Amino acid sequence: MLKVIELFAGVGAQAEALKQAGIEHEVVAISEIDKYAIQTYRKLHGWVTNLGDIKAIKELPQADLWTYSFPCTDISISGQMKGFDKNSNTGSSLLWEVQRLLEKAKENGNLPRFLLMENVKNIVSKRFLPLFTTWIDYLSSLGYKSFYKVLNARDFNVPQNRERCFMISILNYDGVFNFPETTGLKVTLQELLEKEVDEKYFLSDRFIKYACDMENRNGFIRGKRFRPHDGESKVAYTITTNPGGRATDNFVMLPAVGAIRGRPNGNGGYTQKLHVKDEPIVNTITTVQKDNVILVPQATKAGYAAAEVGDGIYTNRMKYKRGVVQKSMIPTLKTSCSDIGVVVTDKDELINIRRLTPRECWRLMGWDDERIDVAFSSGSSETQLYKMAGNSIVVNVLKRIFESMKFFDL
Ligand SMILES: C[S@@+](CC[C@H](N)C(=O)[O-])C[C@H]1O[C@@H](n2cnc3c(N)ncnc32)[C@H](O)[C@@H]1O
Predict the structure, then answer these.
(1) Domain's final residue, options 328, 349, 370
(2) Which residues contact 185 (CB under 8 A, 6 or more apart)?
């Protein structure tokens, strides 16, 4: 039975992948400091000894495999790139705590046979490769032969563009290790989206305005980087720990429910008619020619209300209701969201845009709904659930790596 220690365990993508790869194993200990990740880990994988802060661990129990997906914040291009120099006190420099524990294991004569590292692709960039090579050389001085490769989740049937560097180090070994062949992408992003989501995931007008801002600020044009996915998108961008906060994050565009279109009225002119699709979707957006007023039926003496661009309207059973048109009110309307629309100028704006839900982020990290239900039963907040997903490793990729390791008679 393979004895495993997960350093920087997070929610245990490692343990999950070992299970899925059908490798008999026992997690003898983990090291993790985030209380929500620990709670979730234990929900998913059962009770396990947590040794806590890696800095405070004196030595590790005997094990065959250590995994160490140490914090990437100071290596990632989306962070400040402070690096992971020894004694630099950055989150990423916790790598050198692994060195300290390996030294101790060497002293005790119980170096693990395998080490598995995961970090961002940038660790093998021109800037960080020299230090990474120092690390590999150190491992080699202990007797490890290391093999690393950048793998992308999208090549392992998960529609997320997530490139990560994986490294396997094997003790007293002079053969080769082949990383798994890619499996291709059969699942699309659309297939992983929830059919109905809460109103709160939809972007406010304010955020859309912010994200679409085309002002050129020293070459930076935010609006150009705001690229919500549409029905054609096959792959999500990398899931981050705080998705939906930046214009560059994953957003999905959905077709809107209704449209108000000019239709020829037979007298050479046009009449505008509201067309509402059958199935309700949040935040209906309707369209009207700029500067035009549309007449919306409602239960008043006049029988209609005038709506202009920017006005919110109720689209459900309008002729039985009053107050159907809300002047410039859409962001503040607090009601069942499936029957609200806003009048816009262009039919290309017939879309709704929303962030990904925590469940979608977890799906995009390779978890199925049954396991997600277990993870979410730990009662963590959405902020925490997003963070855990963004920090983790795509299970499918790890599973394939572990399958390749079966070659070693685990
Ligand atoms: C990149 S994540 C790894 C996630 C993990 N691979 C998973 O499957 O979810 C890094 C983890 O290291 C943890 N961490 C940060 N500082 C730590 C420390 N001093 N000791 C132990 N864990 C730490 C973080 O809380 C975070 O969960």
Answers:
(1) 349
(2) 154, 155, 157, 158, 159, 234, 235
Domain enclosing residue 287, as ranges: 258-349
353 lines ligand 1 (CB under 6 A): no
**Is the distance from CB of 284 to CB of 344 less than 8 angstroms?**
no
Q: Which backbone phi and psi does 298 adopt, to 5 degrees?
A: -155, 170
By most ligand atoms within 8 Å of CB, the mutation choice from 57, 167, 387, 391 for ligand 1 is: 391
Q: What is the pLDDT of residue 284?
A: 36
93 lines ligand 1 (CB under 6 A): no
Q: Over the stretch 233-280, which tens digit does the pLDDT of each residue have?
A: 889 899 988 888 888 888 876 654 444 444 445 665 444 444 444 333
Q: Is 343 in the pocket of ligand 1 (CB under 6 A)?
A: no
Contact of 156 with 396, CB cutoff 8 Å:
yes
pLDDT digits (tens, 9 = 90+) for 143-186: 999 999 999 999 999 998 999 999 999 999 999 999 999 998 99
The candidate with the shortest Cα–Cα distance to 366, out of 16, 81, 80, 2, is 16
Q: Round to whole Å and give the CA distance between 29 and 24.
A: 16
Q: Are residues 137 and 8 in the same domain?
A: yes
